[in-house]
Amino acid sequence: MKILIYGSAHLTSETCKVLKDYYDLVGHIPSVNPVIAGDMELPIVTEDVDHDIKLSLQYNVKMQNIENAYNVHTGLLPLWGGQDILYHTIKEKAKRQGLTFHKMSKDFDYGNIISKITYPVFEGDDMIDLYSKMTAIFPGFVLSSLKLLENLGNENVNRCQKKRPRLFKRGNIDASDMNVYKETLPILRKLYEK
């Protein structure tokens, strides 16, 4: 299977290092502003490159052509759609969070859900703790989800669960929390820089 990658963040590059042993990664279309830039070993290409599927890994621009496109969302859909999921996870005192692999649709974070994985959220966890948990499971989850996708085939993928997501937005971050949110980003960058 030929996969066109959308994204250039740290998680994208780490995941591609795992996927390249199993799939033909034909190139990537970079994110506009990744929080933590990745060391992408793939050439930058356009959608015109020959591919079987598109895979969005922390891609921060709405894709126009979503035919045969799949997304790895950094929250459990349908309850955790939208942006800044780790912030909202802590704010809402959730007990678990996770990742969702889903077929993309014209609506944001709404498409047939193919697989999910969860991790625990403990009292006292901050965004750095949650990001560390997420990065530990992300590459293996993407690989296993792609294997499942191959086994399901398009007909069965279209029969997977599809529910309208609850969407969180960047504008929903409380002004009183904005400084803590902004202070987290340099710490995350430092953790994952080479």
How is this structure best described in words?
- This protein has a 6-stranded mixed beta sheet, covered by helices on one side. The protein has a two-stranded parallel ribbon with strand order 5-8.
- The relative contact order is 0.17.
- The protein is globular and about 45 Å long.
- The protein is an alpha/beta fold and 194 residues long.
- The mean pLDDT is 89.
- The two termini are 31 Å apart.
- The protein has a single domain (2-192), classed as Rossmann fold (3-Layer(aba) Sandwich), CATH 3.40.50.
- Strand 1 (2-6), helix 1 and strand 2 (24-29) form a beta-alpha-beta unit.
- It contains 4 helices and 8 strands.
CATH structural fold name:
Rossmann fold
Q: Give start-end ranges of low-pLDDT stretches.
A: none
Distance between the termini: 31 Å
Strand content: 15-25%
CATH class designation:
Alpha Beta
Find the count of extended strands (DSSP E, 2+ residues). Answer: 8
- Based on Cα principal axes, name the global outline: globular
Report helical residue fraction. Answer: 25-40%
Q: What's the tally of helices?
A: 4
* Physical arrangement of strands within the biggest beta sheet: 2-1-3-4-6-7
Largest sheet: 6 strands, mixed
Whole-number count of domains: 1
